[in-house]
C-alpha cells in the first residue's frame, strides 16, 4: 500500500473517530472543526509510523529469507559433496 493511501486512510479514520465521539455526546460537528483536524493529523501520524514499520519489517524479512536460502544452499552443497 502506498504512503499516501495509508496516510489518507488513517486520517479519515481519525476524523470518523472524532465524528463518532461528537455524535455520542450529541454535540454539533461544526463547533470544533479544529479538533477534528488535530484528530486527523494524529491518526495520520500513526499511519505514517505504521507504514514505515511495515517497510522495515519487509526489509528484515527479505534479509532473513536470503540468509536462510544461502544456508540451505551450503547444506545442500555439503550434502552432495559427502
Main sheet attributes: strand count, strand direction, barrel closure: none
Averaged pLDDT, please? 93
Share of residues in helices: over 70%
Low-confidence stretches: none
Count of helices?
A: 2
* Order of secondary-structure elements: HH
Q: Calculate the terminal CA-CA distance, rounded to whole Å.
A: 47 Å
Give the gist of this structure.
With 82 residues, this protein is mainly alpha-helical. The protein has helices at residues 3-25, 33-81.
Description:
With 82 residues, this protein is mainly alpha-helical. It has 2 helices and no strands. It has helices at 3-25, 33-81. The chain is rod-shaped and about 80 Å long. 10% of the residues are buried.
Summarize this structure as a short list of keywords or feature phrases.
about 80 residues; about 0% strand; single chain; mainly alpha
Write the layout of secondary structure elements.
Layout: H1 3-25, H2 33-81
